[in-house]
Design goal:
Blueprint: H1 3-20, H2 27-62, H3 71-74
Length: 76
Amino acid sequence: MTVNEHRPQKRQSTLDREISKPLFPSARYFQIHFQHMQAQLDSTQRGVETLQQQIADLQARLGPAHSGFDMADAEK
């Protein structure tokens, strides 16, 4: 037996492994991905709410004369 006779078998087993690989990531990958996205969305939402509260507090402290920016107009 020569070395060349073993190579086709090795090449075939590599090919078999490549063929058996799934084309798409597993369901667990998507679960982790969407959990991460949900955590980021929750964090962003909390940040927006905090900023809105800070703006409302600042507007209340400055009074209506200094509030050139109205939150009600911004939400439209």
